[in-house]
Amino acid sequence: MSPRVTFPNKFLPYLLVAPQLAITLVFFYWPASQAIYQSTLREDPFGLDSAFVGLDNFRRVLSDPNYLNSIQVTVIFSVATAVLAMAVAMFLAVMADKVIRGKGFYRTLMIWPYAVAPAIAGMLWLFMFNPSMGTFAYMLRSAGIYWDPLLNGPQAMLLVIVAAAWKQISYNFLFFVAGLQAIPKTLVEAAAIDGAGETKRFWTIIFPLLAPTTFFLLVINTTYAFFDTFGIIHAVTGGGPGKATETLVYKVYNDGFVNLILGESAAQSVILMVIVIALTAVQFRYVEKKVHYG
Amino acid sequence: MKTIGLTAIVAASVTLLSTSASFAVTEISWWHAMTGANNEVVETLAKEFNESQSDYKVVPVFKGTYPETLNAGIAAFRARQAPDIIQVFDAGTGVMMQAEKAIKPVAEILSMGGATFDKSKYLGGIVSYYSKPDGTMLSFPYNSSSPILYYNKDAFQKAGLDVDNPPKTWSEVWDAAKKIKTSGAANCGFTSTWLTWIQTENFAAWNNLQWGTNENGIASLDVELKVNSPEFVKHFQDIADLAKDGTFKYGGRTSEAKNLFLSGECAMLTESSGGLGDVVKSGMNFGTGKLPYEEGVQGAPQNTIPGGASLWVFGGKDEEKYKGVAAFFEFLSQTPIQARLHQVSGYMPVTLAAYEDTKKSGFYEKNPGREIPIQQMMGKEPTANSKGVRLANLPQVRDILNEEYEKMLAGQQTAQQALDNAVQRGNEAIKQALGN
């Protein structure tokens, strides 16, 4: 246990956290409570008539087969996006760590895609893989693959996963590079002298010592896949074909802003909020125990 | 205190009014969803109106796509910041009609300035679509369009088809599409934008088939869908069969398929007459024809129904604002303005006088095909099946249809299954939207 830092002034700590608290209040608690209030109402789009319906909206949402489909889509999408984004980033980071000349140049290039807005990333991938005008779609077709993400659900899913993961790789890469730099070179060298090969060194030394970074990124990537990928899905598939890529967040948008069913849309966002709170709690409570902080 | 302040302001403004007229300009906000060339038309109209008089100033604001504009308007209304005029697309008409307390009927506004509002000046098919069952016109038709057939003349030539006579019925379209595909004139024979608006709603009206009960929602919003009747099933099974080998190609839920036609991939396209501008711009050798109809169906072809958008006015505004809106709508209805709008944009004229004027000017002889959408709509007196389509939640029901069509085109279900599912899911959604 490190010694506790204490402030002599009673008010200073409150003053210091006040801005953060204010932001949380305005941008989380206020809209969240609005969502909870809205989720108990049934209203017409213009808010001219509204009636309190209790938990009826939740009942409707949870008994809707499309909602269950959306949960399934979200799980597949989030896990695949997080795993793909982290695995590729880790591989690139380990490789970049070995480069001796032009390290900075490589790293800068790797970080660039992070500066691209989600909707633009989506458009980029859409143009490359658009069945009627995409270059890659043309190449796939000449290779004998029937590429049609407009009608083929799994292909559409693959496209949004790759686009979403691609955008997150840079961010993960940055953290893995920093994590790798924190691993003492002496450990790796000692293992090398003892005759451990490259693969062995990675799995027994580097990977476990990167665990804190990996865990942190797991939390970040899951939240990213849940919430920040809306722009990509909106630009690439719009939730289709059918409902093959309609994630929970996309369904909240679609039901609330396209179909104008505000109560159910609010109920969905409340459920989503509960899911994310639970997910984060589980990650910190159980996964963190297995993380080796060194 | 408050009253004194108010009186002072009133007194001050009265004095100012008498000295300077420019100070009393009433601003009228107009939210719209027009992009590109059509956006320029909006800006020009506002500018011309503002320069034509000095009492009112129309300020157009671009608010995104059609659904985005509607949502922005709804959100603004809830925040008590509603614009004066908002452009709402065809599918949003039912949504606006449901909100009678939020809007002010255009018929009321147009008769406010003392002028009597004469409905007979306007094109019947369009006006009835934007009117209540009792005939009160609720919104001002701004841009109306109708789906037509576009075809690639070069591809027709290569496939050995008659370049001057495009197919008239669906079975002729299928035959031509197969010929185009097998002869290698193009990769795909036929595609269509908006499978909902064109292949379902207009398919119903054009062939005089029932789309839904209660005159497709025109008589009352309490509608049961009827789109799984045998004619619809046959039509969509034909499309699904052609999709198997790529003779029909799917582009997307809205107007994406236009690119398949413009790029030369598909040789025939059904698309809004409002899409003409892009086809002309592409410089391709194309022709247009009437929307194909289903052979052997009694009464076909009947008439097509309008798409596009109309202008709605929000309620609860000052008298002065409404007078300004009325003046603006009067301005828009003028024959030269309407005639120009029609000739420049490919949208239909709203008034009969503008149509006659364009006819007399010889515009249609120089631009064959531009009269097609009007002839399609005006050719016959509309029946209960062909006045239009209206639901409190048409955007949602269209989405349901799109989802089922996509599953059908991917080969996961037959047309019968797709339409049965769509009817069942659609009817549930309609009930829910009406609060039952």
Key attributes of the depicted protein:
heterodimer; A: 294 residues; mainly alpha; MetI-like fold; 2 strands; 2% strand; globular; B: 436 residues; alpha/beta; D-Maltodextrin-Binding Protein, domain 2; 2 domains; six-stranded mixed beta sheet; 48% helix; 13% strand; disordered N terminus
Q: How would you characterize the overall build of this protein?
A:
The complex is a heterodimer of chains A (294) and B (436). Chain A has 294 residues and is mainly α. Chain A has a single domain (66-290), classed as MetI-like fold. Chain A has 13 helices and two strands; from the N terminus they run H-E-E-H-H-H-H-H-H-H-H-H-H-H-H. Chain A has helices spanning 12-38, 56-62, 65-98, 103-111, 118-129, 135-142, 153-181, 185-193, 198-209, 211-228, 230-236, 248-258, 262-287; strands at 41-43, 50-52. Chain A has a two-stranded antiparallel sheet. Chain A is globular, with a radius of gyration of 23 Å. By secondary structure, chain B is an alpha/beta fold. Chain B folds into two domains: 23-145 and 307-366, Periplasmic binding protein-like II (D-Maltodextrin-Binding Protein, domain 2, 3-Layer(aba) Sandwich), CATH 3.40.190; 147-304 and 391-433, D-Maltodextrin-Binding Protein, domain 2 (3-Layer(aba) Sandwich), CATH 3.40.190.10. Chain B has helices spanning 2-19, 36-52, 66-78, 93-98, 106-110, 124-129, 153-158, 170-183, 197-206, 213-216, 230-244, 257-262, 276-282, 319-333, 335-345, 352-360, 363-366, 372-378, 394-409, 415-433, and strands at residues 26-32, 56-62, 85-89, 103-104, 140-145, 147-152, 188-192, 266-272, 286-289, 307-314. In chain B, helix 19 (394-409) runs antiparallel to helix 20 (415-433). The longest helix of chain B is centred in the last third of the chain and has 19 residues, at 415-433. The N and C termini of chain B lie far apart (50 Å). At the A-B interface, helix 12 of A face helix 3, helix 19 and helix 20 of B.
